[in-house]
Specification:
Elements (H helix, E strand, L loop, with lengths): L2 H10 L1 H8 L5 E6 L7 E9 L2 E9 L6 E4 L1 E2 L5 E6 L2 E6 L10 E5 L4 E9 L4 H21 L4 E10 L11 E2 L4 H8 L6 E5 L2 E2 L10 E3 L4 E4 L5 H11 L30 H9 L48
Parallel strand pairs: 1-8, 9-10, 9-12, 11-13, 12-15
Antiparallel strand pairs: 1-4, 2-3, 2-5, 2-6, 6-7, 14-15
Helix pairs in contact: 3-5
Bound molecules: zinc ion.
The site of zinc ion has 4 residues, from helix 5.
Length: 322
């Protein structure tokens, strides 16, 4: 340790030192199994410096922990943590006391998901390219937006010679069971079928995609990569945010009509992980034994148990941390 860095550390610790002098204590949050790079953000419930807080946000300092001030027990006491390549981590019932508390948040490893693409529409090579682009886009959004997920398997099947394919080239979800039975289906992942046109209630279009439930996404032949990310969001129990115009615009992955989807909030990542009906907890069963929470996918008001859907520790484009 050289003197220069000691001096810098001492100078930046002035406010903390003052807190101690005033008779408070300081509490620290550390992390097990963090990703080797990138900030960690937390949402904290408890009484901080005398004020009851719900989802008070903090970001790690360069040395990888967070000094959270003087935290004592309130009616609800917990920490939710987020980092790139780590699923949301929840520590419930934190025993905040009037003494110095040191809380360790354990991160699980990045969670691998499986997808099965089925190409019905021709030419195969064009649809294959479209499916791969969708795979890359979804993986990129999950990484950038700290969802803690990656695509472990993306299997593509050429169904362009299947004798049943033509029945499904104009598709509505009423045909989903028949599609799965006749073309193919794997129950341990999300299945994405590339057809020509999709109608989800307002007419057929090659630019439409749809989530039919039961691990089934169906995409039209000119659909964007980020629309596939949107439909996958439904599998994680995320709802449309387009009516929530104060806190969202077309840049959010879950806007229903957009050419610019890229962001997910921490409120959305929390739901994708903890909602009991998310594919994480059903199809993939990646959080066996861990707490689930039924937050309601569009709740703009925070509760003790769930951050608001628009909660952001980091800015999403023009929407700042909130
Ligand atoms: Zn949608």
């Amino acid at each position: 340790m050289d003197l220069h860095s000691n001096a810098a550390q001492y100078a930046s610790g002035t406010i903390l030192g003052l807190t101690v002098l005033l008779g408070g204590c300081h509490d620290r949050v550390s992390f097990n199994n963090p990703n080797s790079s990138g900030e960690i953000g937390i949402l904290l419930d408890g009484v901080v410096n005398g004020t009851t807080e719900n989802d008070k946000s903090y970001i790690t300092t360069a040395d990888g922990h967070i000094d959270v001030g003087d935290v004592t027990a309130g009616s609800h006491n917990e920490i939710i943590a987020f980092q790139t390549k780590r699923p949301a981590a929840l520590v419930e019932s934190v025993a905040w006391t009037t003494s110095d508390n040191s809380v360790t948040v354990p991160f699980a490893g990045e969670m691998g998901t499986k997808f099965y693409a089925w190409i019905l529409q021709t030419p195969y090579s064009d649809m294959y390219t479209r499916a791969i682009a969708a795979c890359i886009k979804l993986d990129q959004i999950w990484s950038n937006e700290r969802s803690g997920l990656y695509i472990r398997i993306f299997n593509v099947t050429d169904s362009t010679s299947d004798p049943d394919r033509s029945t499904f080239l104009d598709f509505t979800c009423s045909e989903a069971t028949s599609l799965r039975n006749n073309i193919g289906y794997n129950s341990d992942g999300i299945n994405i079928y590339y057809v020509d046109r999709v109608d989800f209630g307002s007419g057929f279009s090659t630019g439409n995609g749809v989530w039919c439930g039961n691990n089934t996404i169906v995409m039209g032949s000119t659909t964007s990569d980020h629309l596939a990310a949107h439909e996958a969001g439904h599998a994680f129990q995320l709802g449309h945010v387009n009516a929530l115009t104060t806190n969202f615009d077309r840049t959010n992955v879950m806007h229903n009509a957009s050419n610019t989807r890229e962001f997910l909030t921490e409120g959305q990542n929390f739901r994708a992980q903890l909602e009991p009906d998310s594919v994480i907890n059903t199809t993939y069963n990646l959080r066996s034994g861990l707490t689930t929470r039924d937050c309601g996918n569009l709740t703009e008001t925070a509760t003790d148990e769930c951050p608001a859907v628009q909660k952001r520790i980091w800015a999403d484009g023009t929407f700042p941390a909130n």
